[in-house]
Amino acid sequence: MIPCTKMGCHRWFRNKLGLTQHVNVYHPVLPSVNISMPVEQCQESSAGEEHSQVLPDGYGDSGNPLDDPSNSNPLAEYVGPGDRYYRNYHPNLTGRPCDSLGNFLPAGHPAEPLTNMRPDDWSPYSSRLEFELADFLFTRSQMSAANINELLNLWNASLLSTGGQPIFRDSGEMYKTIDSTPLGDVQWEKFSTSYTGERPTENVPPWMNDTYDIWFRSPKEYESATDSRQWEDFMSGDWAWKQADTISHDMATHGSTFVPIILGSDKTTVSVATGQNDYYPLYLSIGNIRNKVCRAHRNGVILIAFLAIPHSESSGHLFHSSLAYILHDLMPGTTEPIVMWFGDGHYRCVIFGLGPYIADYEEQVLLACIVRGWCVKCLAMRQALDTDALYRSHEHAEALIEEFDLKNLRDEYGIIGDIIPFTSGFPHADIYELIAPDILHQIIKGTFKDHLVEWVESYLKAMHGTAKANAILNDIDRRIAAVAPFTGLCRFPEGCHFKQWTGNDSKALMKVYLPAIEGHVPVEIVRTFRALLEFTYLIHRNVITEETLVTIEDAINRFHKHREIFHESGTVQTFSLPRQHAMKHYPDLIHLFRAPNGLCTSITESKHIDAVKDPYRRTNRNKPLGQMLIINQRLDKLAASRRDFSRRGMLEGSCLTATMQLFSTRDGRAHSNTSEAPGSNRCNEDTDEAVDCPTSIEAHVELARTPHTYLITLSKTKRARTVTELAAELNLQHLPTILEEFLLQQLDTYDNCDSDLPEWPTYGNKITVVNAAAALFYAPSDISGIGGMQREYIRSCHSWQNGAPRYDRAFVNTDSGLKGMYGLDIVRILAFFSFVSQSKRYPCAVVRWFDRVGDKPDTDTGMWIVCPAFTAQRCPSIGIIHVDTLYRTAHLIPLYATRPVSRNLKPHHSYDSFTAFYINKFIDHHAFSLLSDSY
To answer: Which residues contact 623 (CB under 8 A, 6 or more apart)?
Structure first.
């Protein structure tokens, strides 16, 4: 037995490895630190600002709502419309307001004002124009210093003749103004670390002698009907409640707010042509942020460090020691409450806790200190991962380390025993429990793209031989390339065979792959893909209920059942694949943490663009990291200023209208709003639009508010101006009769007229034709605004973006009392127009109807099938509907069966070249939820 030699410690150990673990956890020695500031303009914070940290609005969900300063909090309250749901609150960690010294305030005590500055104080900027110019040039345009100087020279030259004063003399003056902003001033620090463990007597590896620099910022100093349960925000999970119970055993924590720290890291490459092209950013978020806010990319994730990238042999030691040092400022706040200022103006006592860590599998292995190929969550053997096994735990790992040597630990349990997880020094933190689910790498890029798509190719070659398999794969590529356009859908003009795949490519392929392979592969493979796709879309829902969890488990079971065809055919030898195996842990992880879409690496990867890749492109490539730190700090300052000015109501309207209003007020004239410039309308873009508006409606459609002249430029064709012209344009001679029937339905003549033969309504022949209608609907599981709202455009035009015609399909509400497709129909939009009858304007659409095939979705694909509708005389079924009956766009994919696709088939021809179509429920998450309510 080996004793611990630290003074006052009386522990004994079976071997040296157990002693090393013990010393590193209970008697740690932090690495040497060399602190420096890369931004010399940053001001030192005064001693009187120790409690000036700010958490943004809405960050107080760990206790009671922030708008209720009461100290008598309810244990539960109803939320949402109609009191359909209720939310439970912890009885002890109640988020009770206090003063700056931590003394709790009485109920109803007013909050301190967020700022004492006047509503016209733009400090450190002289005016709104000066701030908006700096924000535009540095944040949005990302203009280089040389180009800024050139622009300011031209601008200042234009002012000489009028005697005007320049806003900024040059880029240096603008940078100095940004740097003087006190808001968002969190300084970068650096520490150096090196290997301090045992070294071999000879042939010492170079990495043991190297010194590594890590740049970081302190994680403390940021602005920051049935009884069925549902999971959405992080605080709705079991882990947060369990942590609150454990923390509240200490009476001193009662009334505090629990703030879980969520970390994420991921190596990224910014350039393949220059020397230093890899970076290792570390991001931080907190669990109190609403899921919608986090997924709407509203600065809910911030950059706190750039980690070193060492050789693989030293990566584990360096990684964990670096994280331990970066987070050591949080350590006191994990056991004793500290006072922080919240976005509602109240101070609150805060208890920190290490929460889940967002990472892909390669980094999860590094985090959990296990051998690659093993599961990071459970003890299943690497050769049989899908067997039932106990979950890993820190206590169990410590017991194994004390009992076995390093070789047995690696071979029998997959544990790397000579690395101490950074969580070991934090209370109530178990690294195995804290590994978060990763939809992007485990499911989308892993199980779908790297496994199933590759297995299909291997299966076809094994069954048909290389030549015939390649012919089939080429036809699958042509099917994918021929899919009709849809808002936000990535195009695959050459199919899916290209080398460099991104996460967005894999997501786009998921949307169209299933119908493309049907007819070329057995039903079991089709059902395997269907099960995986349904699993992926279910776990991506913004709100997951107990019923959803049952459906998720059913999808997992169906996937495991149907994938056996790949094993039986000899395509795959084993299913012991860690990323695919991770599927079985998702139900437990949802119970533990929340809906997984708020803990996915897609959130941190999207942050790479703003925090790493764009700043790198703005450097001169000479020691770029220091320049990237300065750029990030200035971006933080500008963002903090924008939030402050917006909170004070100083950024309402545009800078132009505000300036015009100021001058008109000085001149004593009334101010009139300027209309939006034609070119600023987004209806010509083929992207969804996140809308930050209240969640007050389920869906609403209106004709696009775009000037008629601008719409003409989209199609290069003058649109009809009368009913007669529109009838000729659409080749529908009976259109006036259809319009009269529509108007009769709108006026409800038959129901309200006493005569047997109602009088036909009258209308003017003049109409206004537009090329699009805007659909606004609630889609919280897709990229949307903070309220979960999204806007898309339904299009009907002769030439889309100066190319082929585009006539979108759309869902029409036909029976609001039925769910899903039972209350919906599909139409093709032939034209949008409006007309006036009896002083009332009617926005409407000429449509061609589709019929459903069968009364339930297809058994194999799970998708509804529709075909164009015809009248009794075998003429296309045409109608006119009010735009209020439209729901949103629908995406149809042809029912290819075994029919080969011509090489000449273009996407805009696909709707006219086939007679039956799938309603693509996998086109986005809103469509999946809408169509999944059908059965």
So the answer is: none
CA distance 917 to 922: 14
For Cα atoms 114, 116, 120, give the angle at the middle one, nearest 5 degrees.
110
Q: What is the 3-state secondary structure (H, E, C) of 349-365?
A: EEEEEEEEEECCHHHHH
Does the pLDDT at position 458 exceed 50? Answer: yes
CA 701, CA 486: separation in Å to the nearest integer? 17
Structure tokens given for 697: 């409606």
Between helices 16-26 and 394-403, what is the axis angle to 10°? 140
Are the C-beta atoms of 228 and 545 separated by less than 8 Å?
yes
Strands (E), 417-531: none
* CA–CA dist 797, 771 (Å, integer): 5
d(CA 420, CA 21): 7
How many whole angstroms separate alpha carbon 917 and alpha carbon 853? Answer: 10
Per-residue pLDDT tens digits for 605-643: 888 888 899 999 898 888 888 899 999 999 989 988 988
**Three-state secondary structure of 828-881:** EEEEEEEEEECCEEEEEEEEEEEEECCCCCCCCCCCCEEEECECCCCCECEEEE
What 3-state DSSP class applies to 466?
helix
**Pairing between strand 54-55 and 338-342?**
parallel
Percent of the chain surpassing pLDDT 70: 79
Residue 449, helix vs strand vs coil: helix
124: preceding bond cis by omega (within 30 degrees): yes
Q: pTM of the full predicted structure?
A: 0.84
Among 551, 542, 552, 653, residue whose Cα is nearest residue 599:
542
CA angle, 552 then 554 then 557, to 5° = 115
Instruction: Give the sign of the dihedral formed by CA 602, CA 606, CA 607, CA 611.
Output: positive
Three-state secondary-structure class, residue 186 = coil
Structure-token match 């939006």, residue found: 676
Do 824 and 807 form a contact (C-beta atoms < 8 A)? no
Say whether 39 sits in a helix, a strand or coil. coil
Question: How would you classify residue 495: left for phi > 0, otherwise alpha for psi between -120 and 50, otherwise beta?
Answer: left
Long-range contacts of the stretch 74-77 (C-beta < 8 A, 24+) = none
CB 361 within 8 A of CB 266: no
In three-state secondary structure terms, 370 is strand
Distance separating alpha carbons of residues 142 and 345, to the nearest angstrom: 33
Give the residue among 347, 385, 469 at the shortest CA–CA distance from 98: 347
Q: Rounded to 10 degrees, what is the CA torsion of 347, 349, 351, 352?
A: 20
pLDDT tens digits for 222-231? Answer: 443 445 567 7
The pair of structure tokens assigned to 394 is: 């820190």
The per-residue b/e assignment along 867-902, b for 16 or more CB within 10 angstroms, e otherwise, is ebbeeeeeeeebbbbebebbbbbbbbbbbbeeeebe
State which amino acid sits at residue 718: K
Residue 512's CB is within 10 A of a number of other CB atoms, namely 24
> Phi and psi (nearest 5°) for 212?
-115, 135
CA distance 401 to 14: 10
Q: Collapse the DSSP code of 27 into the 3-class scheme (helix H, G, I; strand E, B; otherwise coil) and give the result.
A: coil
> Which helix (DSSP H) or strand (DSSP E) does residue 896 occupy?
none
